[in-house]
Amino acid sequence: MKTSKFFAYLGRLKWIKRWGLKRNIDEENVMEHSWHVATIAHALALIHQHRFAGVIDANHVAAAALFHDAAEIITGDMPTPVKYHSATIRDAYKQIEREAEHELLQLLPDYLRPAYQPLLISEQLDAQTTAFIKAADIISAYIKCQQEVNAQNSEFESALHSTEARLRALSMPEVDEFMRLFNDGYLLTLDQLLAQHEHEIKGE
């Protein structure tokens, strides 16, 4: 029986570094970024359901988000300033991404492809799911920039401001609610997190 290299390829996402043009205090790879985006996208979808009475499959959003950068195992991570430097580069890279997604899909056994196709092929995602994944991706980038700047890394100051502007431009109440509830915690040290948790348990 023919074997598949699909998950072997995915496992190598941990070797692809993000933010390649910048000096990083805390390096980030595509695998951990994908998990971060998936958990945030899942939360945004649940907020949409339970806070704003929206209708969406939060589990599908999370699964699709896990694979949103899977094609980078073939293309590598292209820094945002390069990717969007011109319409020509942007369009060419999008075409490469599409081809890479289909190449990944072909690595799977025939009987699994229909299940993975709506997760791997970005063009087949519905607009709502795409919007929540995009929002989660920007939130993840903002948190990364915020943490780097908080660690006195001026390399990320401009990226922090531009990413914040992108967040505001989304005009999504789910994003506003997520940031209100969860963002401040990302800047706390472990000791501060534990101290706050202890205070909350004691009702102080």
N- to C-terminal distance:
62 Å
Portion in beta strands: under 5%
Order of helices and strands: HHHHHHHHHHH
**Count of alpha/pi helices:** 11
Q: Count the strands?
A: 0
Give the CA-based shape: globular
Low-confidence stretches: none
User: Helix content range of the residues, please?
Assistant: 55-70%
- What does the main sheet amount to? none
- The helix-and-strand class reads mainly alpha
The overall average pLDDT, rounded, is 91
Radius of gyration: 18 Å
Could you please describe the fold and organization of this structure?
The chain is an all-alpha fold and 204 residues long. It contains eleven helices and no strands. α2 crosses α8 and α6 packs antiparallel against α7. It is globular and about 60 Å long.
Write the layout of secondary structure elements.
Elements: H1 6-11, H2 30-50, H3 58-66, H4 72-75, H5 80-83, H6 87-106, H7 113-120, H8 127-150, H9 157-170, H10 173-182, H11 190-202
Helix pairs in contact: 2-3, 2-8, 2-10, 3-8, 6-7, 8-9
Give the key terms.
204 residues; mainly alpha
Brief rundown of the structure:
This protein has helices at 6-11, 30-50, 58-66, 72-75, 80-83, 87-106, 113-120, 127-150, 157-170, 173-182, 190-202.
